[in-house]
């Protein structure tokens, strides 16, 4: 097979000074209970090298079986569908003890919609009246009981001061609101939480958000959910001075190169040159709990192509990658399974998908950790090679890791320059150090391998045969 070998490809390194290493990999265990998350930290996440886990909003929310009830807060008390305050603390302690940090999905843009009711802990609320807030704490019209609705995404004020889908929009310019949110987040920090995903950050003015973010410890990881749209008034770069930002365009731009044959060859320069935000501020993902029910180009339902998209995400250098871990669903509103998430209920087609346990995805987590500790100490894609048909690419990472990705409909054999020392390595895509598919690097640093269709071969210096 003829290979094209351009010069080393350098992309920006993630360099955010947080307590969580953003050169690693974290996972979103969507709708897992606290006790199941704790078990997974000990039994799988830590051994496989995941350095963080995003958990669903832990605070009190409205009642109901739908997944989106978690995103309608009633109070900041730590009682939710995932468990009790004690179970939350136990999860944080157990995960932290094995080196997996907790990232909380923080819903602080709004409170619950509707005229009133009670939360899962039994707390009562009424129209725009909650234990932590009264009507004056929300954006409103001349009538405290009402507010405008978000309708015009070309108007920043409309997006950030009107109610999103009927959810009462908190006035984040208010010092009381800022202090209340900061109190909630700092309380979580004091319990051992190390990071925060700020839900609906797009619907909060960035400098006003900084009114509560600046009250957090400097080392806290904070990233905002900002969905960019064409000709919209709110842009991700507005938030970059204050926090990391979700880069939704990564999946939208990269996925077509995985879906269509012959296009993997174009992935060598993914990053700012594609119009994406700087790597050091970007949190990336193939899909999340919203997009997999909406406009995600690929989800677990797409099988091999989705797996390939995840493999490229973990093997490349751009951004801080988050792996989505789902449950099987057929209806947009469908809530989580009644069965707990564990090794027995993962991947059986009826309960939990557990993409983070798929062998290739899991195998590349420690691979990525080794890769960033290469010769230069910075992430780089070196020794890039692509097949004539553009379906197969290979590259090394910092003299410590090497991967071949094969999107073709057939197995592909080739000789590649790895940049690795000679020796026998484990292919972490399909094996482990106890049951290993051996790949031999020759004395000249090359390797002769056959890569199966729609999968990869990946070796690194941390996994010798």
Task: Report on the architecture of this protein.
- The protein has 465 residues and is α/β, with parallel strands linked by helices.
- It contains 8 helices and 19 strands.
- The strands form 5 sheets. It has an 8-stranded parallel beta barrel, surrounded by 4 helices. Strands 1-12-13-14-19 form a 5-stranded antiparallel β-sheet, covered by helices on one side.
- α5 links the parallel β7 and β8.
- It starts with 8 loop residues before the first strand and ends in a 5-residue tail after the last strand.
- The N terminus is likely disordered.
- Keywords: Calcium, Carbohydrate metabolism, Glycosidase, Hydrolase, Metal-binding, Signal.
- It catalyses: Endohydrolysis of (1->4)-alpha-D-glucosidic linkages in polysaccharides containing three or more (1->4)-alpha-linked D-glucose units.
- Belongs to the glycosyl hydrolase 13 family.
Helix fraction, binned, reads: 10-25%
**Treating each run of at least 4 consecutive H or I residues as one helix, how many helices?**
8
Which of globular, elongated, flat, extended, rod-shaped describes the shape?
globular
Largest sheet: 8 strands, parallel, barrel
Which secondary-structure class do the elements indicate?
A: alpha/beta
Spatial order of the strands in the main sheet? 2-3-4-7-8-9-10-11
Amino-to-carboxy terminus distance: 27 Å
Helix-strand sequence: EEHEHEEEHHEHEEHEHEHEEEEEEEE
Mean pLDDT: 94
Query: What is the number of E strands?
Result: 19
What is the beta-strand fraction? 15-25%
Uncertain residue ranges: 1-16
- Alpha carbon gyration radius: 23 Å
